[in-house]
Specification:
It is a single chain. This protein is of the alpha/beta class. It folds into two domains: 157 residues, 3-Layer(aba) Sandwich (Rossmann fold); 288 residues, L-fucose Isomerase, Chain A, domain 3 (Alpha-Beta Barrel). The strands form five sheets. It has a six-stranded antiparallel beta barrel. The protein starts with a strand and ends with a strand.
Length: 449
């Protein structure tokens, strides 16, 4: 849950009961949005500064993700800045309330936007990270916009201590999946820890047979097998999952990536699709293959903003009005339309594995990816409508070739998106999350493409 410090403001000569009533209603609207509120105020510009000191005393020792400056009437700037300067590193929302219309048609105002318009540039000049929101008479309160920014601040706080685990490095010698550790830590706070595939193999060899059988039973119960899988494949899937689970839980990873083609498949002889599926479904961590570091960070951004897992999709074909995006290995059950469906299959010279061939849920979605170019981070995102794909296959699979999980994603301007596409992997979230992601990127000083 997001926690905010809520401070109401109103000028000392404005009727106090009006300011208090407006601030109380604003607080309740934020609680209804799911926020935990630390309430302070209302604060006035009293000559002795007693209200400011009272507010600072009330905030001392508290912990919160963002500060809401609720301007319920005109307030001289100094009264607000005297408080915010002590918390200048916190994300803030400058929220101006509004007046009302009496039954006889008279507009009554406490000059809320006089207060916010006096503050907005000052806060910008002081270098605060803030969002400016104002209500309009006759329209619904914009408490949801305030709450969205507060939740983005909470996501940014979580990222500061987040860790992703990665077995191996630079699968297939790709460039687009690389990362710069120091700048990534500085901007997002995320730490990417690598661990050796040797450790994964050693833990796999020591897995308890009874625990392994429990996972096999889980797969047989929860997954639909189009064809029976080899016992060896089931044993390897369960064993390597348990080994990865141990590492993930011991080190507190929120996301996991494994060296796929040049690692699990080539060296250990087992395609990791079921491992990723189990890690996502049982351990509730975001998963992506091929050492895709920035893809993994994008997943965590989506997860902390929305609660969704942030599944990855890979582009296969571009059309005039859409893109075909799918995966050659797995999708988490969270985005499966119906039951998780798997089958044994092999691709080219690679060993046979347990391939996830589930259908993907259709619907409105956002595709996004964090990118790093010329020393700067940016977020590329677009909204689209995911629909069930036509019958398709990737050449190279044993026949009859599997229908891979995927969607045809309808876009308003496919050409504009593809001319800026940043990687083969993009992260999806259901619904339009562009406003929430923009808030998070603003807090992290990440530009939007």
């Amino acid at each position: 849950m997001s926690t905010i410090a809520f401070i109401g403001f109103g000028e000392v000569n404005t009727p106090f009961d009006l300011i208090e009533k407006k601030c109380t209603a604003a607080q309740e609207s934020l609680k209804a949005e799911g926020l935990e509120v630390i309430s302070v105020g209302p604060v006035t510009d009293d000559e002795k500064g007693e209200d400011v000191r009272r507010a600072l005393d009330a905030l001392e020792g508290t912990s919160f993700d963002a500060m809401v400056l609720c301007i319920a009437g005109w307030i001289p700037t100094h009264a607000v800045i005297s408080i915010t300067e002590q918390y200048r590193n916190k994300p803030m929302i400058l929220w101006g309330l509004c007046g009302w219309i009496e039954s006889d048609g008279r507009l009554v105002t406490t000059a809320d936007q006089a207060g916010t318009s006096a503050l907005r540039k000052t806060m910008s000049d002081l270098g605060y990270c803030f969002k400016y929101v104002y209500d309009i008479i006759g329209l619904p309160s914009r408490s949801s916009a305030v709450a969205d920014f507060a939740k983005a601040a909470t996501a940014a706080t979580k990222l500061r201590s987040a860790k992703a685990g990665m077995a191996g490095y630079r699968d297939m010698r790709l460039y687009g999946t690389l990362y710069d550790g120091a700048s990534l830590k500085k901007v997002t706070g995320v730490e990417i820890e690598t661990f050796e595939m040797l450790e994964l193999y050693q833990r796999y060899q020591a897995v308890d047979p009874a625990q392994r059988q429990e996972i096999i039973d889980y797969m047989l119960k929860n997954w639909k097998f189009d064809k029976p899988a080899k016992e060896e494949s089931l044993q390897m899937a369960a064993g390597y999952f348990l080994a990865a689970k141990q590492i993930t839980e011991e080190r507190g990873y929120s996301a996991v990536s494994l060296k796929d083609v040049d690692g699990m498949k080539k060296l250990l002889g087992f395609p990791p699709a079921p491992i990723f599926t189990l890690l996502s479904d049982i351990c509730k961590v975001s998963t992506i293959p091929e050492n895709d570091a920035l893809g993994s960070v994008t997943q965590m951004m989506v997860k902390y903003l929305t609660g969704q897992c942030g599944a990855y999709l890979e582009f296969y074909e571009f059309f005039e009005d859409r893109v075909l995006a799918g995966v050659p290995d797995f999708v988490p059950s969270e985005i499966v339309d119906g039951q998780v469906t798997v089958m044994p299959a092999a691709f080219g010279e690679l060993s046979e594995g347990i391939l996830n061939v589930s259908k993907v849920k259709p619907g409105k979605l956002t595709m996004c990816r964090l990118v790093y170019t010329d020393g700067k981070y940016a977020m590329h995102m677009v909204t689209g409508e995911g629909i069930a794909p036509r019958k398709w296959e990737e050449a190279g699979w044993t026949q009859p070739a599997p229908q891979l999980p995927g969607l045809e994603i309808l876009l308003q301007d496919t050409e504009a998106f593809t001319q800026n596409v940043m990687c083969q992997h993009y992260i999806i979230a259901y619904g339009d999350i562009t406003a929430q992601m923009t808030d998070l990127c603003k807090i992290l000083s990440i530009s939007i493409l």
